[in-house]
């Protein structure tokens, strides 16, 4: 079951996360955000990819964060979907097609705005929890944007570092061990050299989806 988190149950769920982290040290994350203002060509150099990522993340607000806590055997302890209040679909910059897709898949942006959690409040709670739990390992799927939005949040919504090496160092300092499933799939037989999306990977591995696609909670359950 995906635990939906809003302003009203935020404190209780953060306490639950803190307790569970004593036995479950693997955090699987996924985010939903308002699209890509700059689309990066597939053959772009790493520097260009990072410039585009920074341009996008610096200018847009996070809509949802989903994460699961697992133990070292891969057993899922619990799953959360945090709904944030900072994105206003009327006034904030976004890509209309991306917002249309999120609405189609069940994200109520107006409810988020009224009843969601402020990202700065979430960040302060998460930083306190991370200061206690030092053994966390992070798992993503094609997760550079996930890490970038989370890093922006934890920094108090400061702009991302100016260069990719600076970003990599900062992310390493904050998160420690990070594993990207899409990257690892490149080196696994039968997984198309990693050139596949999350939905396709789940089908190959015979993983059944729970919830809607393009919601952070359901997507990270597939990753987990």
TrEMBL record:
Gene3D superfamilies: Ribonuclease H-like superfamily/Ribonuclease H (3.30.420.10). Its EC number is 3.1.13.4. Its main location: cytoplasm. Its cofactor is a divalent metal cation. It holds the Pfam family CAF1. One of its GO terms (molecular function) is metal ion binding. It comes from the Eukaryota. InterPro entries: CNOT7/CNOT8/Pop2 (IPR039637), RNase_CAF1 (IPR006941), RNaseH-like_sf (IPR012337), RNaseH_sf (IPR036397). It is found in: Cytoplasm; Nucleus. It catalyses: Exonucleolytic cleavage of poly(A) to 5'-AMP. Keywords: Cytoplasm, Exonuclease, Hydrolase, Metal-binding, Nuclease, Nucleus, RNA-binding, Transcription, Transcription regulation. GO terms for cellular component: CCR4-NOT complex; cytoplasm; nucleus. Ubiquitous transcription factor required for a diverse set of processes. It is a component of the CCR4 complex involved in the control of gene expression. Component of the CCR4-NOT complex, at least composed of CRR4 and CAF1 proteins. Belongs to the CAF1 family. This is poly(A)-specific ribonuclease. It comes from Nyssa sinensis.
């Amino acid at each position: 079951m995906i635990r939906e988190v809003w302003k009203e149950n935020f404190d209780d769920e953060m306490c639950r996360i803190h307790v569970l982290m004593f036995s479950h040290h693997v955090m699987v994350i996924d985010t939903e955000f308002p699209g890509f203002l700059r689309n990066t060509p597939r053959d772009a150099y790493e520097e260009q990819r990072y410039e585009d990522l920074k341009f996008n993340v610096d200018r847009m607000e996070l809509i949802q964060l989903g994460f699961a806590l697992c133990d070292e055997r891969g057993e899922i302890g619990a799953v959360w979907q945090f709904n944030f209040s900072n994105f206003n679909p009327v006034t904030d910059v976004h890509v209309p097609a991306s917002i249309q897709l999120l609405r189609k898949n069940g994200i109520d942006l107006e409810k988020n705005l009224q009843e969601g959690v402020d990202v700065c409040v979430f960040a302060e709670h998460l930083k306190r929890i991370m200061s206690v739990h030092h053994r966390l390992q992070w798992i993503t799927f094609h997760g550079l944007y996930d890490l970038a939005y989370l890093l922006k949040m934890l920094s108090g919504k400061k702009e991302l570092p100016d260069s990719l090496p600076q970003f990599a160092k900062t992310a390493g300092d904050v998160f420690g061990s990070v594993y990207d499933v899409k990257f690892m799939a490149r080196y696994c037989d039968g997984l198309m050299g990693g050139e596949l999306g999350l939905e396709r990977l789940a089908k190959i591995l015979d993983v059944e989806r729970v919830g809607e696609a393009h919601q952070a909670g359901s997507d990270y359950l597939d990753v987990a």
